[in-house]
Write a structure and sequence with these properties.
Blueprint lengths: L5 E3 L6 E3 L3 H6 L3 H38 L2 H5 L5 H10 L4
Antiparallel strand pairs: 1-2
């Protein structure tokens, strides 16, 4: 059982003294870091890939829409079309 002056490390389960607690918190467990990074990769990368793909499709298709009369159909005047195009480029920033 742990005494009041010791702390249990979350991943390894070992007990350390209060004097060594700061040092233990600043050291990085390479195996735990690898696990966390892998989980982040599996959760974040598919979402980023989907967003990037949709942004590319939107950017490509708005140019095709202009060729086929999108401005006239929507009644856009002056710089309104360029303003709409800039919304699709914002996802790349």
């Amino acid at each position: 059982m742990a005494s009041p002056r010791t702390h249990k490390l979350p991943l390894s389960g070992e007990f350390i003294s209060e004097e060594n607690a700061d040092e233990a918190l600043t050291t990085v467990d390479k195996a735990a870091e690898k696990i966390v990074l892998r989980k982040l990769d599996w959760h974040i990368l598919p979402l980023i890939t989907l967003i990037y793909t949709l942004a590319f499709l939107d950017r490509a298709n708005i140019g095709n829409g202009r060729l086929y009369g999108l401005e006239k159909d929507l009644g856009l005047k002056g710089n309104q079309f360029q303003t709409a195009v800039s919304v699709f480029f914002a996802t790349y920033v």
